[in-house]
Each structure stands twice: as C-alpha cells, then as structure tokens.
Prior knowledge:
Chain A has about 325 residues and is mostly helical. Chain A is about 80% helix and about 0% strand.
Amino acid sequence: MKANLRSSKTLTVALALVLINVIVILISLNTGSLRIAPLEVVRTLLGFGDNKSSLVLFDYRLPRIIITMLAGIGLGISGAILQGVSRNPLADPGIIGLHAGASFGLIMFVTYFHSLNDKAALLIPLFTFIGGCLTAFIIILLTYDRYKGILPIRLILVGIAIAACFNAITLFLSLRLDEDTYTFASRWLVGNVWGRDWIHVIALLPWIVILTPIGILQSRKLDALSFGDSTAVGLGVSVLRTRLSMLAIAVALSSASVAMVGGIGFIGLVAPHLARRLVGPRHQHFLPVAGLLGMVILVLSDTVGRSIFQPNAIPAGIVVAAIGGPYFLYLLTKTK
Amino acid sequence: MLQTPHLKHLNNRLHNMWRLLLFIFFLAGLIVTLVTAVSFGAKDITFHHVWTAIFNYDSSLTEQQIIYELRLPRVIGAAIVGAAFAVAGALMQGVTRNPLADAGVLGINAGAMFVVTLCFAFVPSISYSLLMVFSFIGAALSTLLIFIMGASVPGGLTPMRLTVSGAVIAALLHSLSAGIAIYFDLSQDLAFWYAGGVAGIKWDQLKVLVPVIVLTIIWAVSMGRSISLIAIGEETAMNLGIKVNLIKLLSIIAAVILAGVSVSAVGSIGFIGLVIPHIARKLVGSDYSFIIPMSALLGAILLMLADLGARTVNPPRELAIGIIVAAVGVPFFLYTARKVGRDL
Amino acid sequence: MNKQLLMVFTAMLLLILAACGQTSSTDSKASDTKTEKDEPKIASLSIHLTNDLLALGITPVGSVVGGELNDFLPHVKNRLKNSTKLGPAKDPDMEAVIALDPSVIYIDEGISGEDISKFKDIAPTESFNLDEGTWRDHLKAIGKLVDRTQEAEDFIADYESLTSEVKTLATDELGENSKVMAIRVTAKELRVFTTKRPLGPILFDDLGFKPAAGIEELDSTQPYEVISQEVLPDFDADAIFVVVNSDDKAQTAFKQLEESPIYQGLNAVKNKHVYVVSDQPWLDYSALGNKLAMEEAKKLFSK
C-alpha cells in the first residue's frame, strides 16, 4: 500500500516538475534581445512564425536551452548517484573535483583542436569524460583504504584539494595558449553556458539520453548499496562492480554536462537532497525527480542570469552558487 | 632502547642541535634565494652590480636602480607573503586538527578577495592601506561565518564540516566576486588579482606589510607550545591548564591577519599554507614553536622561487604566480595527501 | 506541505509568464509601424568599420561596442546616439542583429570570419580583412559599396595634408631621424607597441618616425608586447608616446611609472619629449580614428 502511495506521489511531483519546466522553458525562450511573446513562441515552434522569430528561436535560443536542460538533468542525476555510491550526503561532482578534471580534459581538447565550434566538437564530452575519470582515479587512489573503504570525510577533503590542483593546472595551460582561451577558461570555471550551436546539442544528447535511463534502471542496486556493503552483498549485489559502474556513469554524466555549460557546482548537491525530501529515499523515485529538479534549477538560473542583469549577462554558475551555496550551508547545519 | 636519564638528556641535546642546524641551513637558503631571485630578470645584470646595489647603492646607475626599485621590493614582498601564508596554514592545521587546512581551502582568501572586489567596484581609487584593512575585514568575516555555522550545530565543528563549509563558502564567494567583477566591468584588473601577483608590490606597501607580518608571526610562535598541545588533543591540553578556546581564537585571529593582509598585497595564492607546514613538520618534529618559524622560512623560499619562475619562464611575459605555486605544489601535495589521507 | 509549495511556485511562474506576454505584444506593435528608409541599413560588426562609415558620413543602424568599455568609443559616441548596441565585437549579440533587420552586414574577417554563414543567414554580408592594406584601402572599398567614392578620396587627401603639417612641426621639435617608441601602461602590465596597427602605421609610416632600437625585432603579428620596466632604457628612444587609459587604475599606474627613477633616467623624459595620449582615438585604426589622432598630434607638437 505504502509503496503505491509513494509511486503515485512521485508521479504527481514529476508531473508538477515537468509543468514547471515547460513554463520556465517558455519564459527562457521568451528572453533575449528580440522579444517574442509566449504565444508567438509556441506558434514559431510549430512552424508558423515569421522569418526573424524562426531564425532567433531555432538557431540561437533552442539549442542553448536544450543544452541547459540536458546538462541540468545530467548534473542532478550524477550528484544523486555519487551520493549513493559514496554514501556521502555531501558529495557533489564539483566539490569532489570531477569538474576540475573535466576542465583539464577540455583544455587538452582546445590545445589539440583549436576551435570549439566545428565538427570536432562532437568529441568534447569524450575529452572531458577522460579528464573526469583521471580525477576520479586519483581520488580513489588517494582515499581508498583496504580496511575502511572510502571514508566520506576523506573523500571530501581530498576531493577539495584535487579540485584546486586541477583548476590551477587548467588555468596554467590555458594561459600558455592565448589570452582569449584564458578568459574562456576562467569563465568556464565559474560556470558559463557557452555551448550554443546545434553541434553542441548533438554532442551532449547521446550521453544524457543513454546514461540517464541506465542509471535509473540500476535503482534497486543503488538502494541496496545505501544499506551498507554487507547488506548489499546479502541482497545479491556485487558491491565492487556496481560501485565502479555507477561511478563511471556519474562521472560520464557530469563530465559531459559541464563540457557544455561550464563547471557548475551545487546542482549535483541540492537537486538530490530536495528530490529525496519530496518523494522519499528510494532511488527509482528520487533519481528521475533529481534530474527534473536539476533541469529546473539550471534553466531558471541561466534565464535569470541573462535577463535580470542587463546589459551584462551573469554566467549561470554564479546564480546557481548564489542560491545553492546558502542552501547547502543550511543543509550542512542540519546533517550529522 | 632503554633510555636512562643520562641518554635521554643526550638524545634531547642531539635533537636540539639538529634542529638548530636545520634552521641555520634554511636561513642561509633564504638569503641565497633572495640574492639569486634578485639577480635574475628580464635584463641581464652581473652579480657584481647586485652586490653593490644592496650594500653600496648608487642611484645614478640604471642597473642598480633596477635592482633596488624593481626587483628587491617584489622579492622581499614574495618572501614576506610566502612566510605569512605558510604560517597561516600551519596555525589553521594545528588548531583545527585538519591536515588539509589552508587559508585558500578554508575560504579565508575568498573572503578577503570578495571585499577587495567590492572595493574596486565602489571605491576605485582607494588607498592601499585602506584596501589592506578592508581585505583583513573580508578575511575575518568569512572566517566568522564558518565558525558561526559550526558552532550552531550540535556536535561542534568536526574537521570535515569545517573544511566543507570552508570550501563551499570559498566557492560561493569566488562566484559572487566574479559576478560583481562582470557586472561592474572590472574583469581586466581583477583577472590578475585572482591568480595572484607580486609584481605590483612597492616599498610603501612593504613598509606596512613587513612589520605587521613579522610581529604576527612572532606572536604565533609564542603560542607555539600551547598549539602543539591542542593539536595532540583538546582534553589533554585542558587538563594541562591551557585555555584551549582562547588559544584557538587567538591563533585563528593571527592566521586571518596574515592571510588577509597578504591577499590585499598579492591576491589569492593558495597551496603554500597547505603544503609547507607538512614539510616543516617532517623536518623539525611536532612542536609548533619550531614548526611555525620553519614554515615561515620555507614559505618565504618557496614563494621567492615561484616568483623567479614566473618571471623567467616566458620573458618578458609574467606567468601568474598562483599558478606556478600550484604547479609546483600539486605533485608534492598528491604525495602528501596519500600519506595524510591514510591517517585521517 | 510540499504540494502547496509546488502550487504556489507554479502560480508565481504563471503570473510572470502573463506579465512577459503583455510587454512583448506592445513591442511587436511598435516595430510594425516603422517606415522604410532610403539609406542602406548597415549593421557593423567591427568598431573600426563603424568609424570608417562615420568618416564617410554614414551612420550604421547598429554597431558592436569596444570590448573594454562595453560602450561606443568616446570620440564617436554622440554620433551613434540612435544606433543599436550589438554587444562586444568578439561575442556579438546575434539576436540584436536579427532584431535590427539590417539590409547589409559588415564584418571584420579576423574576428568574425569563421561565423560568416551565420551572418549571411540574416542579411547579405561584406567581409573586410583589416590586416590587408591600410585604412585608406578599407575606406575606399566601403566608399565603392555605398557609392561615396568622392567623399573617400576627399577624406584621404585632407588627411595627407594634415600629416605633412604635423611632420614639419615634429621635425622642428625633435630634429631629423628621431627614434620613437610607444608604450602603454595598464594596471598590471607595461606594453610596448610593435610596427603593426594600430600605432605602427601612424607613427612609422605616416609620420615617418624611426622605430627605437628593438621595436622592429618585436613580433609584428601582434599589436604589442609586454615588457618589464627593466628593459625600458635599452630602447634608447628620443621620444616616447605614452598611451594611458582614462580610468583611475591606469592613471595611478602611470603616476607610479613616472615616479620610478628608471623612467626618470630615460633620455626622452629628461628632454621632455614624452607625449601622453589617451587610448582613444589613438588605438582606433580607422579613417576617423587616425584623423582625430593626427589632429591631436598637431596640437602636441605645436606647443
């Protein structure tokens, strides 16, 4: 009985979030130098708009918003998985240093390919994924203890320091390239939605669309892990393999997302927490909700950053930090 | 080995002699590094000129002017700020019992930077001394924030909670600083600040910076014994009559002063406070009355070398010093973290 | 409780949505009543091309802004009062360009060349390579496009006569074959200008000054190089042009430079052959920019 109640609650929440998302997206499609009324937006999307609106919508706003949506989902779900895998409620791909590793991968890409906008852009998430894996590998190396596993406290502490390391390396490498790259890298580190062409959408899409369902399908295994390793083994879950594969998925999701929107932290932290408070602790419920929440947060932050602070657009990452930071600090006073 | 009182006495004296030797060695190293750092730069200047510039300054010779006006201030600045950051890190690590504590990691630098950014935005022509005061206020505020948060929770401030709050506050303040910089179009000036630079240090700044930092370090050393006992265990210290909370407060104030004024001079340079205290600890043991001065020496040497590197890697362009320190600190840090992570 | 929160949130969003809807519809009404103009509606994606257009007496309907200032250049600001700002040149606001509905777009090949197809989707686009030839060539090319070739020729002729006046004045003051360098002080760097635009052509080609020792050895694909104060005396210049931004930070940086004994020991400083100019119009490599700079030069050498 209770399970059914939970499921229907999840459904309600999910639907509400989808609705909110649609509204937020419509508002976002509405903002920009060219004013398009919401009804006009809908007409244009269906193909009935005039030339100017169509051009603006399809070539400029839609790709950017789709990227923001996808990245929001990716970050939300990645954070949720990370928290489950490390049994650490404070784990977030940014704090742990995965974003910093991804930025390193991005700079490697720029060093080799020079341009971020041509066909080679399809490979960007691959490079950031490798960077993220590299960081994850180093972190595990430094924190894994044969007897105690990975202590949550160690993970956070080492992750923070690793993040600082890789951020510095990235800035250093970007300085050696040229001034424009340096500016790009420093804005990236703050969290700046720079991906805006359809090619970037196509680069990001497969990663999110394929990995998200896979992650959700593993919900039961993630639930088992959260009960403790010995319980999980008792439930028939191969702990090490699940951990590693889920970690890989989390790294892939977050690396691909930040590849296109910059190192935005806090979403992977706040979205899962909120989701859990809304629909309960079972992964099959709160994982998708975390994704939806991530989407709402990111799209909203990006829109706010672009519209309220005219004429200078504030990068989305700053808005997210301004909201997410205090909320996280509040969370911190509540946990443990 | 059975330690009879006689042998123990000898053992202690041996240790003390060894420590003294180390101090003399590194002090000499400091002077050598200073002279080396001053000898190199965009223009080739013979050692002879360097020597005479320091001891027999003749202001009409261009080469000597270069040494005196351009290089000496920044090298001395690098030394003093390096010492400051290192000691601040040592203090934080001792008092919070967190081996990965550092002014950058704990958000102290970020607080100072944030207020400095606000100053640049609203009072562009602010005087240097006032900027230093504001920078210190910023550092103090962020530290206060962290500790208030910690104190308001049952269970107090575990190292993890402290570090995580620090990191989050640092990230938050960095973002806000960046936001303000973008909104008020300050990016050009601030970009260099963020990565840290000693290039702009002038003699008048040093006139204020050096006494403040030296006095604070001496003050910190005087608390060294108490800090060592706190680092072992707070209850042990309390039983030995140490006013734990008072010492903790004073040490943190000292660390904030050191970090705060340094950030106002050179921007945000992390890693020094993280890495140096560990090296110092390896060399002179776990007594903070030795760790602190040794950290000061090592920090000074490190930053002078980093500044030298920043100037000579790609002349005449200058690489941001914070990045060089990180580049050097990273491999070292990874090695230390592995060991430290095990002990956490 | 959470459900209530969600509902409140949704209601708020709907309200915002409704509000947005209102303002947008009034905007679109206004744009319908715009009348057609005779002149070509030019959108300029380069501040230099904008100034070339202004030199020919044509005001573009929209122009990008200077990166550091985030605004139109001060010497042309009031002439562009009615023009729409299109964002910084390196990252233009494409939506604003679309909203403008220009009849033709001018771009700087060096900055926006890669994105030319995007611009062509909006309107016919002309691309200019600002590194090829001098601003006179660009001016003449634009003149042909907008049918003002005579104005272009006249402008160039005026400039040439102004230049020979200044040349004479300069030689009177500095003597023949004087060696000149140009530097710029920013808050964090000391820069020396190479033989490339914007300062190379006006100083070394138009006014015929000789470059100080070492200038020609600098990387001429870049407009400037960063140097350390230490090597300043090595250039051994007879005259120095110093470009100082009008903002406080740069002014302070320049004052600090002036106080340093190394600076005071330079020949040019001792002989009072230092000419302080503002970054605009000197760094504006365009017809208008150079003309205004040359007029300033005339005043500098007439003192």
